[in-house]
């Protein structure tokens, strides 16, 4: 209890804008809760945004609900995307609603933690509601552009072959970039054609299956890198684990070289695989398991955004067609992935 009393007294001497202090307090507390690495990274992003906006103007322990609302307005209208700061390809300000909602939830958690530890009396974000989402469109990659990317890679070169294998793994496993680039040899069961993802966004490990073609590619890649003596599958030319940023940069380079119009990101492979899975008759609950979603509602967003899927479902389950087909029942196509 003495420590908490001291922390209350300390805040009177806090230098304005010193979000680094509450960042250390909160991150230490969250790490004790065994949150995933991605969640911790998201907390860090929020602290960066808080510091960017409030700077030296506000004591972080004394933010008011009015100032918290002003911060949300800043996220909506003025916050610059992280990628724009690096590549300087033009300023795009304002985050999308789903991202802002994540920031709001994290801000609530930050100040609730401070309140629980008795660093603050009130949570200024407590009454702020999440934004209404206006049917944000999931970004997918046209099939012809995926083929163009794969066909353009020269598999005689290690870096091109590594990208070729990675794209197959992304599409075959529905994996996130952290999950795929952290695959180690012991995570792969070649006999049963499964990969174990121990590091996931929500800390729920899962197994995913892969095709015979991906199996052969992985075996070839492992053989190619065996002299580097690493447990990881995807490696830099120096033998280190291939990093997320290095992968993103290389993917952008290939898209420029092959004149691919779509601004492809690693997560778009996951979106594209999910959409194609449903459009080919895949079951939404099976997709939920493949994606590692805890809630079906998270997965159902894919069922709402595909115009092709809507048309397919309309034709397959048309009440009029069933009435006019002399009583013949429509037999639902089995998922190709379950055969």
UniProtKB/TrEMBL annotation:
<keyword id="KW-0238">DNA-binding</keyword>
<dbReference type="InterPro" id="IPR011010">
    <property type="entry name" value="DNA_brk_join_enz"/>
</dbReference>
<dbReference type="InterPro" id="IPR050090">
    <property type="entry name" value="Tyrosine_recombinase_XerCD"/>
</dbReference>
<dbReference type="InterPro" id="IPR013762">
    <property type="entry name" value="Integrase-like_cat_sf"/>
</dbReference>
<feature type="domain" description="Core-binding (CB)">
    <location>
        <begin position="17"/>
        <end position="115"/>
    </location>
</feature>
<dbReference type="Pfam" id="PF13102">
    <property type="entry name" value="Phage_int_SAM_5"/>
</dbReference>
<feature type="domain" description="Tyr recombinase">
    <location>
        <begin position="136"/>
        <end position="315"/>
    </location>
</feature>
<keyword id="KW-0233">DNA recombination</keyword>
<protein>
    <recommendedName>
        <fullName>Site-specific integrase</fullName>
    </recommendedName>
</protein>
<dbReference type="InterPro" id="IPR025269">
    <property type="entry name" value="SAM-like_dom"/>
</dbReference>
<dbReference type="InterPro" id="IPR002104">
    <property type="entry name" value="Integrase_catalytic"/>
</dbReference>
<dbReference type="InterPro" id="IPR044068">
    <property type="entry name" value="CB"/>
</dbReference>
<dbReference type="GO" id="GO:0006310">
    <property type="term" value="P:DNA recombination"/>
</dbReference>
<comment type="similarity">
    <text>Belongs to the 'phage' integrase family.</text>
</comment>
<dbReference type="GO" id="GO:0015074">
    <property type="term" value="P:DNA integration"/>
</dbReference>
<dbReference type="Pfam" id="PF00589">
    <property type="entry name" value="Phage_integrase"/>
</dbReference>
<dbReference type="GO" id="GO:0003677">
    <property type="term" value="F:DNA binding"/>
</dbReference>
<dbReference type="InterPro" id="IPR010998">
    <property type="entry name" value="Integrase_recombinase_N"/>
</dbReference>
């Amino acid at each position: 209890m003495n420590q908490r009393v001291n922390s209350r007294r300390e805040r009177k001497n806090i230098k304005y804008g010193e979000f680094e202090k509450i960042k250390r307090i909160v991150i230490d507390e969250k790490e004790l809760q065994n949150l995933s690495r991605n969640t911790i990274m998201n907390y860090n992003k929020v602290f960066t945004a808080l510091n960017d906006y409030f700077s030296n103007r506000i004591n972080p322990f004394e933010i008011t609900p009015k100032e918290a609302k002003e911060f949300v307005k800043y996220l909506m209208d003025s916050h610059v995307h992280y990628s724009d700061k690096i590549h300087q390809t033009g300023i795009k300000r304002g985050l999308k609603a789903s991202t802002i909602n994540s920031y709001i939830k994290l801000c609530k958690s930050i100040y609730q933690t401070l309140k629980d530890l008795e660093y603050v009396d009130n949570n200024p974000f407590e009454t702020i509601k999440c934004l209404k989402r206006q049917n944000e469109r999931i970004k997918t990659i046209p099939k012809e552009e995926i083929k163009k990317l794969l066909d353009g890679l020269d598999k005689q070169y290690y870096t091109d072959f590594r990208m070729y294998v990675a794209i197959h793994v992304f599409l075959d496993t529905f994996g996130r970039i952290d999950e795929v680039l952290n695959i180690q040899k012991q995570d792969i069961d070649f006999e049963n054609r499964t990969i174990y993802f121990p590091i996931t966004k929500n800390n729920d490990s899962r197994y995913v299956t892969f095709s015979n073609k991906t199996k052969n590619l992985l075996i070839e890649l492992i053989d190619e890198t065996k002299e580097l003596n690493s447990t990881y599958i995807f490696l830099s030319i120096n033998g280190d684990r291939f990093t997320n940023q290095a992968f993103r940069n290389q993917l952008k380079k290939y898209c420029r070289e092959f004149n691919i119009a779509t601004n492809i990101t690693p997560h778009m492979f996951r979106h594209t695989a999910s959409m194609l899975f449903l459009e080919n008759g895949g079951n939404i609950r099976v997709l939920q398991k493949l994606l590692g979603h805890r809630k079906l509602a998270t997965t159902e967003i894919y069922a709402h955004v595909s115009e092709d899927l809507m048309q397919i479902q309309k034709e397959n389950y048309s009440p009029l067609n069933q009435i006019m087909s002399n009583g013949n029942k429509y037999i639902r196509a089995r998922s190709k992935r379950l055969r």
